[in-house]
Amino acid sequence: MSCTTPNVNVPMGTFKTTDFPTVGSLSPGAAAPVNIQLVNCPAGTADPNSQGGQIHSVQYSITPSAGTVATNVAALSGSPSATGVGIQLFDPSGAVLPLSTPQTVSGYDGTVGGNYTIPLTARYYRTGTVTAGPANTTMTVTLSYQ
């Protein structure tokens, strides 16, 4: 048994190429919310590979389907596509979320299981010369149980 994770579509907004004056610039305005739902997480499920035979924590990692264009910046996918930008994720404290790196789900209680939310945000990040076009990508969330 495992948590289920519905697909999450994140409207990033529309921006002009001039909204990104230099490499490293982030999209202006509020960051787009990325609330990943973990539904029906197991409680007290036996797991012979974990401490005491029970699940004590849930970890997640987010991997960009098209790879990265800079450290922790997801590459855009699709054709045609904008160039010179990628997407960066941030944790609730505003720190850059390390991509493809396990993170612990905050608040998970193995004695009760239940539903949890991973509250992240996203912004476009300039990586080079920006050209206009669709700026989409997909990312995969992988859960592991400890």
UniProtKB/TrEMBL annotation:
Biological-process GO terms, alphabetical: cell adhesion involved in single-species biofilm formation
Q: Please give the coiled-coil regions recorded for this protein.
A: none
Keyword set includes NAD: no
Arranged from A to Z, the UniProt key words for this protein are:
Signal
Protein name stated in the entry: Type 1 fimbrial protein
Q: Which InterPro entries match?
A: Adhesion_dom_fimbrial, Adhesion_dom_fimbrial_sf, Adhesion_dom_sf, Bact_Fimbrial_Adh_Pro
Domain named Fimbrial-type adhesion is located at 5-146
Give yes or no: UniProt keyword Transferase.
no
Looking up Gene3D superfamilies in the UniProt record yields: Fimbrial-type adhesion domain (2.60.40.1090)
Domain of life of the organism encoding this protein: Bacteria
Q: Name one GO cellular component term.
A: pilus
